[in-house]
Design goal:
By secondary structure, the chain is mainly beta. The protein has a single domain, classed as Hotdog Thioesterase (Thiol Ester Dehydrase, Chain A). Helices cover 12% and strands 43% of the residues. A seven-stranded antiparallel beta sheet has the order 1-2-3-5-6-7-4, with helices on one face. A hairpin with a 2-residue loop joins strand 2 and strand 3. The longest helix has 16 residues. The radius of gyration is 14 Å and the shape is globular. The model has no long low-confidence stretch (mean pLDDT 93).
Length: 136
């Protein structure tokens, strides 16, 4: 399948995390009907403990992937809940990949999952619920 770039809605163009001027400058690609992925340079300025990515940055990267996944089917959605599991320390000054996919959509609510992988190791994962909002 040819990967297609995910285009955020106009309401998301100023996102602190993933807009063109945002912290991570992420470009997500659709790799399945309801799944996205992006490569990310895990910059050493995002360090928490020595030589490890800060846990809040990890959570933000996972949330960005989950949000971009909702753009495929419910572009006006917001995070209702986010549960992050940290499996392994995430190294810095290396490329990682964030992926997210939709598990279920029902009555304006979506359930999604995501991973942050470095060198073929899943270092963190997340489950989330998103709530569809009205377009403003």
């Amino acid at each position: 399948m040819n990967k297609q770039p995910v285009i955020p809605p106009v309401s998301h163009h100023q996102c602190v995390a993933c807009s063109e001027d945002g912290l991570f400058k992420l470009q997500f690609y659709q790799y399945d009907e309801a799944a996205v992925s992006a490569k990310v340079w895990l910059d050493n300025t995002w360090q928490g403990y020595q030589d490890q990515l800060h846990g809040g940055v990890i959570a933000t990267l996972l949330d960005a992937a989950l949000t971009h996944c909702t753009f495929l089917f419910a572009p006006q959605s917001v995070t209702a809940s986010l549960n992050v599991r940290y499996h392994h320390p995430v190294p810095i000054a290396i490329y990682g990949e964030v992926r997210a996919w939709c598990v279920k959509v029902k009555h304006g609510m979506s359930r999604l999952e995501a991973t942050l992988t470095v060198a073929d190791t899943v270092c963190a994962s997340a489950t989330a619920s998103f709530m569809q909002t009205r377009a403003s």
